[in-house]
Design brief:
10 helices, mainly alpha
């Protein structure tokens, strides 16, 4: 008699996110068949990039069990995570492409775009929640929250760099001097970059407010567990070593 394998909460989170990714892919290919076009195929690539931060943070958590955060391996993983994290939230800006071409059903495309964007954002929020939880183990709530706020601000600015200046995460590794020159030029002449401030601030408010809700849900789950001995909710459990 076979024994049914039980998934851990961490595994259930990954399976659920993989399921959402599959739903997004199905919606894309169904739309491609209906329109006889692979228009918007970049959504598949962008969603793949959104998975990278979660993989990096999973490796980071495992590494932190053996090493202090200031050692080279955790620091390297953290920097790589910071480089790729904006990809998860960048997909929100893909809504600007929804009417690039005439399609069979605009409302269907809205559903498809929402599926990709929602999945990518969840991937980003989960990895950010995990890092926040690891920081909370090592410092006060105020300090850890301040660091997370700075991370969200950097992600918001990175969205501007990607959407308006057309830089991407790979360029941080392949052309750091070019990015530094472009960014410094905009910072030196801020009055010429009204879009930079409006884009960065608007995304910071949106991503930050959504993350606060997610964090509070995670904290409420932990409180319920302590109070009643319930099992962790999947997202909260994913953060545990």
């Amino acid at each position: 008699m076979s024994v049914q394998r039980r998934y851990s909460p961490r595994e259930r989170v990954v399976v659920s996110l993989a399921g959402l990714t599959g739903v997004s892919a199905v919606l894309f290919f169904a739309g491609a068949i209906a329109n006889r076009s692979l228009q918007f195929d970049y959504l598949l690539w962008n969603l793949l990039l959104a998975w990278i931060p979660l993989g990096l943070v999973a490796a980071l958590v495992r590494n932190l069990r053996r090493n202090v955060w200031s050692s080279w391996q955790p620091l390297t993983l953290t920097l790589l995570w910071l480089v790729f994290l904006p990809n998860s939230f960048y997909m929100i800006s893909d809504f600007v492409h929804i009417q690039d071409v005439a399609r069979h059903n605009l409302l269907y495309d809205v559903v498809m775009f929402t599926s990709f964007i929602f999945t990518a954002s969840l991937l980003g929020f989960c990895s950010l929640y995990i890092v926040h939880s690891e920081l909370r183990k090592r410092m006060s709530l105020r300090n850890s929250s301040a660091i997370v706020a700075c991370i969200i601000l950097l992600c918001s600015f990175a969205i501007y760099l990607g959407r308006s200046l057309r830089w991407n995460s790979w360029d941080v590794l392949l052309n750091p001097a070019g990015i530094l020159f472009d960014v410094s030029d905009h910072l030196i002449h801020p009055w010429q970059s009204g879009e930079m401030f409006s884009t960065t601030i608007s995304f910071f408010i949106l991503i930050g407010s959504l993350y606060v809700v997610g964090w509070q849900l995670g904290e409420a789950t932990r409180f319920e567990k302590q109070l009643h001995g319930y099992e962790h909710a999947p997202c909260a459990s994913f953060c545990q070593p």
